[in-house]
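Onboarding guide, step 5: your first structure request.
Type a short instruction followed by the sequence, for example:

Predict the 3D structure of this protein.
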Amino acid sequence: MGILRFESRDRTRWLASQCRWSLRDLAVRTPDAGFLDSATVGFLTSEERAKILEHVRSTLLTDLDQHVDNWRNNFSNNEDPKDYFDTLKSALREYDTAFVADPVASDYIAAGLAKIDEVIGELQADTPPSPDRGDPFFDSQATRDGPKSSRSIFDDVDQ
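The system replies with structure tokens like these:
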């Protein structure tokens, strides 16, 4: 009863390989370090994790400046730059932990994190500050407009 038919086993193997390929791709393109958590992605072997890490090292880390530039180009002024780059910084910190024995990879990551902080500073300087309710301008507007009422200005006209 518990034995998979031949076609089902082949399909399962194919799906598993596709999933592994997707994780490898996400590790670089997003970047997403979730594959490092064996509790979450328990189907990966340590060898497969090592291969994905090597792909991250050879593809993402060596071209990290370009990845940061891509993130910058996709930034929307509707967001806080710190919040926007938080996902990228978090993934790089996780990669840094994984590459603790690789000083060259750690140097790439440190340079990438420094560039991200620089970009965040530039974006914050370019983004107008959000209106603060403690601002005297907004307070004077509220006072001048008077308190909000549930009555309409036309309530007395009909009477």
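Each response can be followed by summary notes, for example: The chain has a mean pLDDT of 80.
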